[in-house]
Backbone:
């Protein structure tokens, strides 16, 4: 009674400690160590209680431990890559698994016929059943191992996608052969029924998943009043899809994967940022826990009296697994390469074959065998355990050196950027256009069609505030928000530039960007890409996008300060034509975005505590310059479009603007501020960034050499405490 | 036919297929003009339609020495343009791959650089982004503009890195362009399948 819980606690704390020693995960995949721990524990329990330790209950595994892992994997799967390679994945999953299952089954049967091994009582059907359950590539094991080796995404998605999709085949074959074993006679019609069953199982599972995914998305459309339980819906519906599919004997894994992928697209836009974070972290937590438990239980269950050793059977099983896998991948690749535009090289094939790891699914399936029909069940268990241990330990440990030895293309760790997003988009359109010209319906055509359908019907139905989105713009928005948060969050580290120093600034001086700063900015860009297409570069259970560090925020602020100087100075040069100056850093534009106020308000509360007075002062000034124009713009937008009104934050802004200035006229003025952005180098030509001003306005406003804003800035600074805390911190 | 195949790298089957398509587009004439592209219905929805059509007539893409736009292109030119989108073959060596990649990137570069001066200036970049986002009626021009600015700045930092205080970043040259695409293997992405598919009769 206390043994099992204490086991779990021990295991989990161990898992945590494992990551503290950094080198270890790179050498040995976590799964190996977990199994070892399990073995140890099993040994202890066995020794202490003199009976077999609790074997992992198949029910527990299939109902509670497996779904979180698959959900996590499905939710964060790079869908675009998945669908681009879908044909190949499907081919490997279906035909590959069939090939393996039947191949292993038949060859084992051949071995069993040799009377010297004492295995003659195992029938063909039993062998086939054994073959079908042992050929299942396991997503848990694949994830555990591939997590650390960072192969390129294409390879990863092939192996991982295969491991997910082959569940359909495995389920069908397993049930098929099991029922065949129990039937007296088998007619041909039964075989065809079996084949039909496959389609039903696979497609049915996917349909259930998609249906429930839509229901979940639809539900979240209405949850903006009850944000707290939004994560609950995500988990509930996905689990519901799994259970429903299992109830109808369909493929639960495929259902939950389909559900997760569907939900991901729509739910993400409906739920609040906090809910999204909660979902993310909770999912990762659940899946980590499940994975740990699975491997430990596997270790524990190994110890005990469930075994029957037979050299021939076990060794030949292992041998055949390896041979048939290699053969299968090789042959199948030759066939599928004809249809692929980018053929798979030998290296790829090797990794795919080598990455076919078996894990807990076969383990549980073997325990589910009814002993009445399978008198040699213990033999099967032993063989399965040996194969699993081999794949997890030997293959798991050696795959990393092999990947390095073979110089397999690794995942591209380059930080994505806005420009890349633009290029990719441009690219897609070019390809689609060329395909249209060619008259060829390629991938892009279908994707385009789906997107149109999606935009026209699905999004309208499932998303609360549906505005046609561009991934470029949303990426941009997100990074702006992030930037704004960071700005507000950390205090400025230097004093306000005085008017004297400002006027000293010569024209034409551009602040160069150091690589470090660029790096920081790139990091920021990346963080926000977690939600955009190329989101998970390589799937990693244990790390999500890291949070911005202090140093980084300070860097940003340094740049901001410089940019302020720049911007203030540049106003008079706006009217002049600048030759294609491109040295602008990011601009903080905030098109209608309602999430900002929420966050800013929260964030700035903390910031006003942190940092000394000078910090908050300049911070305030900064943010004033920063956001006020936006406020003006937002206000204007409010009038122009019926929007969901921003919370009272806006009103405070307005008051502040009106109160401290001359009212409406002044409101224009901040907008004339060319770039309250971080350190741009040269002003761009026309900077009516915030919606209202045209060139004429700008030139009109800035006749005098002395730019307008500095007075404001100076005034803020010099007005001291009166202005300092009152308006700036108010909106927050 | 044989020399066409050799020059552009297509198989004769693909050339036939493309020829059929060419005839459809040109309505059995020998050359295609810009207006012929209007007959492709799906192309209407493509936001950068103008640039794509323009690319077909761009003399730089047609490997002619001169500059500017051709008025009409014949089948050979059509094939030349299409050859930019050939998938890579297994038997290509490093040098060929590199050349192939450069060619593809050059094609893209020409699409960005509309005034043919060898540089992508900020205005051109903005143009591109505005066109890209033009399908989205809710987006204001400033967003597009600021995005372009931001991207340009990123490009500047990649290409030039540390800039002196008086430097002005003129525009993205082809070398810079190459640098930016370094991480992305364009040769595997920039291809269209030229399988023998029945042409969808778009234009009647």
Residues:
């Amino acid at each position: 009674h206390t043994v099992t819980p204490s086991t779990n606690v021990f295991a989990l704390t161990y898992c945590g400690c494992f990551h503290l020693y950094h080198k270890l995960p790179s050498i040995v995949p976590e799964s190996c160590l977990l199994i070892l721990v399990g073995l140890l524990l099993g040994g202890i329990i066995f020794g202490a209680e003199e009976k077999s330790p609790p074997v992992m209950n198949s029910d527990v595994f299939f109902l509670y431990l497996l779904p979180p892992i698959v959900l996590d994997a499905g939710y964060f799967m790079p869908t675009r890559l998945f669908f681009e390679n879908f044909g190949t994945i499907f081919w490997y999953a279906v035909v590959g698994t069939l090939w393996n299952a039947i191949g292993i089954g038949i060859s084992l049967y051949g071995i069993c016929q040799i009377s010297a091994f004492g295995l003659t009582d195992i029938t063909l059907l039993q062998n086939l059943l054994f073959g079908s359950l042992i050929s299942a590539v396991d997503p848990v094991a694949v994830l555990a191992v591939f997590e650390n080796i960072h192969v390129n995404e294409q390879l990863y998605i092939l192996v991982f996608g295969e491991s997910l999709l082959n569940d359909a085949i495995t389920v069908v074959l397993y049930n098929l052969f099991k029922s065949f074993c129990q039937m007296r006679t088998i007619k041909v019609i039964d075989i065809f029924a079996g084949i039909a069953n496959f389609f039903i199982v696979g497609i049915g599972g996917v349909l259930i998943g998609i249906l429930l995914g839509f229901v979940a998305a639809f539900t979240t459309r209405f949850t903006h009043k009850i944000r707290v339980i939004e994560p609950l819906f995500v988990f509930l519906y996905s689990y519901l899809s799994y259970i429903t599919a299992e109830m109808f004997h369909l493929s639960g894994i495929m259902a939950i994967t389909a559900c997760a992928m569907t939900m991901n697209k729509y739910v993400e836009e409906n739920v609040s940022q906090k809910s999204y974070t909660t979902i993310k972290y909770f999912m990762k937590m659940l899946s980590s826990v499940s994975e740990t438990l699975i491997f430990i239980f596997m270790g524990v269950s190994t110890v005990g009296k469930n075994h029957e050793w037979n050299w021939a059977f076990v060794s030949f099983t292992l041998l055949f697994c390896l041979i048939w896998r290699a053969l299968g991948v090789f042959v199948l690749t030759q066939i599928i390469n004809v249809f692929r535009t980018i053929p798979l090289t030998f290296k790829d094939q090797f990794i795919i074959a080598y990455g076919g790891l078996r894990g807990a699914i076969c383990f549980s399936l073997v325990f589910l065998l009814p002993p009445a029909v399978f008198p040699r069940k213990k033999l099967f268990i032993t063989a399965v355990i040996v194969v699993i241990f081999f794949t997890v330990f030997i293959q798991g440990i050696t795959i990393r050196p092999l990947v390095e030895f073979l110089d397999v293309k690794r995942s591209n760790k380059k930080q994505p950027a806005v420009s890349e997003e633009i290029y990719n988009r441009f690219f897609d359109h070019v390809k689609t256009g060329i395909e249209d010209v060619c008259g060829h319906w390629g991938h892009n055509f279908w994707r385009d069609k789906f997107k149109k359908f999606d935009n026209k019907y699905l999004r309208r139905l499932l998303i609360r505030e549906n505005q046609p989105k561009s991934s470029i713009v949303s990426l941009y928005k997100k990074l702006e928000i992030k930037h704004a948060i960071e700005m507000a969050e950390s205090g400025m580290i230097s004093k306000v530039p005085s008017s004297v120093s400002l006027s000293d600034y010569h024209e034409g001086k551009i602040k160069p960007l150091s690589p470090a700063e660029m790096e920081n900015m790139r990091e920021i860009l990346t963080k926000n890409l977690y939600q955009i297409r190329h989101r998970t570069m390589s799937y990693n259970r244990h790390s999500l996008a890291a949070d911005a560090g202090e140093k980084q925020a300070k860097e940003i602020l340094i740049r901001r300060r410089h940019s302020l100087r720049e911007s203030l100075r540049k106003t008079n040069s706006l009217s002049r034509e600048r030759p294609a100056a491109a040295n602008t850093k990011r601009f903080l534009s905030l098109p209608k975005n309602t999430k900002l106020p929420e966050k800013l308000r929260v964030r700035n509360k903390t910031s006003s505590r942190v940092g000394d007075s000078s910090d908050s002062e300049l911070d305030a000034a900064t943010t004033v310059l920063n956001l006020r124009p936006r406020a003006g713009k937002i206000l204007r937008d409010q009038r122009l479009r019926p929007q969901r009104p921003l919370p009272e934050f806006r009103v405070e802004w307005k008051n502040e603007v009106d109160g401290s200035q001359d009212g409406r006229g002044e409101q224009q003025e901040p907008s004339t501020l060319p770039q309250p952005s971080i350190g741009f180098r040269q002003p761009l030509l026309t900077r009516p960034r915030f919606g209202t001003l045209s060139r004429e306005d700008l030139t009109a406003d800035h006749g005098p050499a002395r730019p307008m804003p500095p007075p404001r800035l100076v005034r803020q600074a010099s007005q001291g405490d009166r202005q300092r805390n009152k308006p700036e911190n108010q909106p927050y | 036919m044989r020399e066409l195949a050799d020059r552009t790298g297509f198989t004769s089957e693909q050339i036939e297929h493309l020829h059929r398509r060419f005839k459809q587009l040109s309505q059995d004439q020998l050359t295609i003009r810009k207006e012929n592209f209007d007959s492709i219905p799906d192309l209407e929805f493509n936001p950068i339609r103008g640039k794509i059509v323009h690319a077909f007539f761009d003399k730089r893409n047609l490997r002619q020495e001169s500059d500017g736009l051709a008025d009409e292109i014949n089948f050979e030119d059509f094939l030349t343009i299409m050859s930019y989108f050939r998938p890579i073959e297994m038997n290509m060596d490093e040098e060929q791959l590199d050349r192939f990649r450069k060619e593809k990137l050059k094609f893209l570069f020409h699409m960005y650089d509309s005034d043919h001066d060898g540089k992508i200036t900020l205005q051109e970049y903005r143009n591109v982004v505005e066109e890209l986002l033009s399908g989205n009626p809710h987006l204001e021009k400033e967003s597009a503009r600021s995005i372009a600015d931001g991207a340009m700045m990123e490009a500047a930092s990649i290409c030039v890195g540390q800039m002196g205080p008086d430097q002005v970043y003129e525009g993205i040259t082809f070398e810079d362009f190459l640098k930016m695409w370094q991480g992305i293997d364009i040769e595997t992405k920039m291809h269209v399948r030229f399988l023998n598919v029945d042409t969808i009769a778009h234009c009647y």
User: Anything to note?
Assistant: The CA atoms of residues 13 and 58 of chain B lie 26 Å apart. The two ends of chain B are 27 Å apart (CA to CA). Strands of chain B lie at 31-33, 72-74, 119-120, 172-173.
